[in-house]
Amino acid sequence: MADQFLYVSVFLSIACLLAIYAWKNSRSPIFNFPLIGMLPAILFHVEQIHDKCTEVFAKCPRRTFRIHGPWFANMDMLATVDPENVHYIMTGNFQNFPKGPIFKEIFDVLGDGIFNADYVSWKEQRKLTRFLITHQRFYRFMAKTSRRKIETGLVPVLEMICRENRVVDLQDLFQRFSFDTTCILVTGYDPGCLSVDFPDVPFSRAMDDAEETIFMRHVVPECVWKLMRWVGIGGERKLSEAWKVLDSVINGYIAMKREEMRKRGGDAIEVEGDDGSDLLTCYMNSGDEDRVPGLRCDDDMFLRDTILNLMIAGRDTTSSALTWFMWLVSTNLEVEEKIRDELKLSISSDENWRIFGIDEVKNLVYLHGAICEALRLYPPVPFQHKEPLQADILPSGHFVDPKMKVLFSLYAMGRMESIWGKDCLKFKPERWITKGGSIKHEPSYKFLAFNAGPRTCLGKEVALTQMKAVAATLIHNYRVRVAEGHRVMPNCSIILYMKNGLKVRVANRWSCE
Predict the structure, then answer these.
(1) Nearest of 461, 439, 440 to residue 450 by alpha carbon
(2) Which of 94, 151, 470, 482 is 20 to 30 A from 65, comparing alpha carbons?
(3) Strands (DSSP E) along 12-92, which ranges?
(4) Residue 251: CB partners within 8 Å, gap ≥ 6?
(5) For binding heme, which residues are annotated in this chain's numbering (predicted)?
(6) Alpha helices in 45-88 (DSSP H)
(7) Whole-angstrom Cα distance, residue 378 to residue 68?
(8) Are 191 and 179 within 8 A, CB to CB?
(9) What is the C-alpha separation between 311 and 251, in angstroms, rounded?
(10) Closest to 449 in 3D by CA, of 508, 371, 352, 345
């Protein structure tokens, strides 16, 4: 009898403790379990993580909340979409919020490239990269490359699809287009990923595998993925194999470029005529006038890290943005017609078929607004995190210490009524146009698609002009419609792609009329 009473007492005590714990957690946006924290809820919602985060942020005061991980996993972080916090972290107290060693370890495949770099290394790399990307010889090369790849790569594939009246994955086409153009712009070599036979390209597949594993490193405890890496199983094994492919291909490009330079006469600076030159050539040929102290631009490891960082930046962001943009336009026909009307005004009235160059579309206001609106709702990089060097208090009043990561969701920021108004979920290009008909610029801490503060994306203008040229050519010449029954939803990766691709039917507008 006494034993039974003891068991009942213990059971009731545990039940009371759990009830008290549950009551405390009723005020928390995500249930916080004893010992294991919020990890079960995160794993349960991982397939809808972006929309779940949006839902949680909308309920939180100051759009900020604390995420508790398992007590042993070092996963505690502060999540925020408060523009004041973002501005403070990205600009106001930028020096106290570097990428940090944890970020570099998670993204270890990127080496010491500009995405992982902090402090002096980051400043030196950014200074040289800005000089090369904004140089006229690179702009000429980009203009030529973009038009040629649209004309000889994208259009022939689209024409074949129209003739065969088949369903195609537009996301796959954009990935192939972006991969080819980025590879040409960065290395000078065309991998030929975009062609009518849809070849398998190991380099591109290796980048996909690496990104998938990096995302999972954000979700599972650090000790778990490190154990998987040590044992060589699961996603970590896939990353290891992808790493070897990336190194092999990139080192091959570097070796070919060195051989080209040797044949041209060693280290002599040679600007490749009026067509400009690729970034690898520019890096290897950087002379005294543009060389940055502390950078060894002739070092193979530096070149490897630089190429991979630029490849991921160029391929993934552009193709992701174009995919979501075309889905939004094809499902909002009034927007599609307004873009076509703007394009008609930019060309002669008797002209139908047209491939647009980057200089022809860079000043189109409505097209610019539509692309920015797509980036607001579906930012290619949906989240990012920082680590404070020293303890700090954010404008929202939340305390952060060096053991805590600070995470902000760009996806959720674009869907906050407190930031964008009651119509925040509506695709509305007019949001980006002033009453006078010019482009409206939003502060970067509110519209974070191209980052903010000192780390603002160096390739912003390159990406925008290339997207405009592709979008204009596609919308002006073709009618794109989502295939019946196709379900669109975001995937789980560090890049916001569509989980099931974008299956569409394409028709040539001029052959149909």
Answers:
(1) 461
(2) 94
(3) 64-67, 77-80
(4) 300, 304
(5) 457
(6) 49-59, 83-87
(7) 27
(8) yes
(9) 14
(10) 371
Tell me the two tokens of residue 240. 């290891």
Element (H, E) at 303: helix 300-330
Return the pLDDT at 423. Answer: 96
Tokens read off for 78: 């502060």
Closest CA to 402 of 77, 79, 85, 93: 77
* 33 CB-side CA count, 13 A: 10
505 three-class SS: strand
Q: Is 372 annotated as a binding residue?
A: no
* 103 backbone dihedrals φ, ψ, rounded to 5°: -60, -45
User: In 296-401, which ranges are E strands?
Assistant: 383-386, 392-393, 399-400
Looking at the whole model, is its pTM more than 0.85?
A: yes
Does position 24 have pLDDT exceeding 70, yes or no?
no
Find all residues with CB under 8 Å of 13, minimum gap 6, and list them: none
Task: Quote the tokens at residue 123.
Answer: 């400043």
Residue type for position 12: L
1/3 Cα distance (integer angstroms): 5
Which of 50-54, 190-194, 201-205, 374-378 has the lowest average pLDDT? 50-54
Distance CA 242, CA 70 (A): 30
Instruction: Find tokens 């002033």 and name the residue.
Output: 434
Most confident of the ranges 12-21, 196-205, 255-264, 411-420: 411-420
Distance CA 320, CA 375 (A): 9
The contacts of residue 500 (CB under 8 Å, 6+ apart) are 486, 487, 488, 489
pLDDT tens for each residue of 259-287: 988 887 754 445 455 567 899 998 988 75
Q: Residue written as tokens 């294991």?
A: 36
Amino acid identity at 253: Y
Q: Which residue is it, tokens 């009329």?
A: 513
